[in-house]
Design goal:
With about 160 residues, the protein is of the alpha+beta class. The protein contains four helices and four strands, in the order H-E-E-H-H-E-E-H. The relative contact order is 0.10.
Length: about 160
């Protein structure tokens, strides 16, 4: 069954909130659309605001009034906070499993002042030193003290080290 353009427009408008203006397609976004966008990584939302929609104006039909804006902000903030933040700190329950993890180790003797590079460091087990995710930040920095081959790298052995939380 082939639908006319008008029937297709009405069907889409009903199902998706889409409208047609000439050849342009518009969608009236819902709060759920904005919340989903934040969950997918959006960091900014553009929305028109009016103090009173009944006063009219070109943007009035698709603008939010102050109460609606407050609700949108609340829902988007809730979605944003539910995403959480990475926490790389070690929890007490992880301690017994550290031997199975990997960390950065000196694979040759390193003198104080030597530059860390791929020839003198390697990511191996056990996980008693800096996490592998820190390796790119370690490479090119200098050792603050001498390290024997087989020593796990710790933050105090790296010059100008600031770890991410």
């Amino acid at each position: 069954m082939k639908l006319s353009r008008q029937e297709a427009e009405q069907h889409l408008a009903k199902l998706q909130g889409w409208t047609f203006e000439g050849d342009a397609i518009r969608k009236q976004y819902t709060f759920a659309d904005f919340v989903a966008a934040v969950a997918l990584g959006a960091v900014a939302i553009e929305k028109h605001v009016t103090l009173d929609r009944s006063e009219g104006g070109v943007d009035a039909a698709f603008s939010l009034e102050p109460e609606e804006l407050a609700k949108l902000v609340s829902e988007v903030r809730q979605a944003w906070s539910s995403l959480g933040r990475p926490d790389y700190r070690q929890s007490p329950s992880e301690v017994p499993n550290m031997k199975f993890r990997r960390s950065i180790y000196a694979i040759e003797d390193i003198e104080a002042g030597d530059i860390f590079d791929s020839r003198n460091l390697r990511v191996i087990r056990p996980g008693y030193g800096l996490a592998p995710r820190e390796l790119p930040k370690v490479l090119g920095r200098r050792a603050t003290r001498a390290l024997k081959r087989g020593t796990a790298l710790t933050s105090d052995s790296i010059e100008d080290w600031e770890s991410d939380p």
